[in-house]
Amino acid sequence: MTQDGLTVGRLSAGYGDRPVLEGLDLSVAAGRVTAIVGANACGKSTLLRAMSRLLRPQGGHVLLDGKDIHRTAPRELARRLGLLPQSPIAPEGITVLDLVGRGRNPHLGLLSRWSRKDESAVAAAMDATGTLDLAERPVDELSGGQRQRVWIAMALAQETEILLLDEPTTFLDIRHQVEVLDLLIDLNQRRGTTVVMVLHDLNLASRYSDVLIAMAGGRLHAAGAPADVLTAAMVRHVFGIDSRIVTDPLSGRPMMLPIGRHRTEGHRPGATDTKDIET
What we know:
This protein has 279 residues and is an alpha/beta fold. 30% of the residues lie in helices and 25% in strands.
């Protein structure tokens, strides 16, 4: 089936009388990995909540393959679109296996029984996230990093064609950050899963995304290939800090080096930054 992906048109959203997103337009192409970056409180999480129907827009629309997500049956939407929100809360006392298993709920009818396919999907998700040995442990007894990997396993077990992840590397050490991002790339390449993720680390966002989106003040500041979006001018506008953009020697993608007041040899604040240096 040909997919149009997620399309956001003239989207305005917020909380009560506090607007966060204002007239935002965005097209997420199917089968690509998109990373969203921006300063705190710029609207990244609000955008993901609106795109997943957790937050009803105050104006505009969110379309999935041309159909308004608010006119799509909840179970149908859950089969196609999965969300890992920021700071999810697990039911008290639930075990890891039970929580990951809830990712299969959209695929079960009222009279459907747990099948081998469901068991296989849960086992594969737990194996991929390194959580098999935690299966019988209560989620509320786990460390922050362990819990995050369990939530990612639940999202993977849902086996949706679109996966939205709000800061999936939160609480994870650098090894597990890289493992999770590698896993999402594997998922994209093997299944064609569309991945949209909010990341704080600009360099990981640049290395792992096909499309990089920078947000500022509830609007899109820039969107495109990482080589086009991750510039010193963007970092200055979006994050309010000077930087140098160099070439990542491993990926060939742009890499951002922040310029602070200390540990910065030979730099004058306000001096012209170079686009690239030899590595």
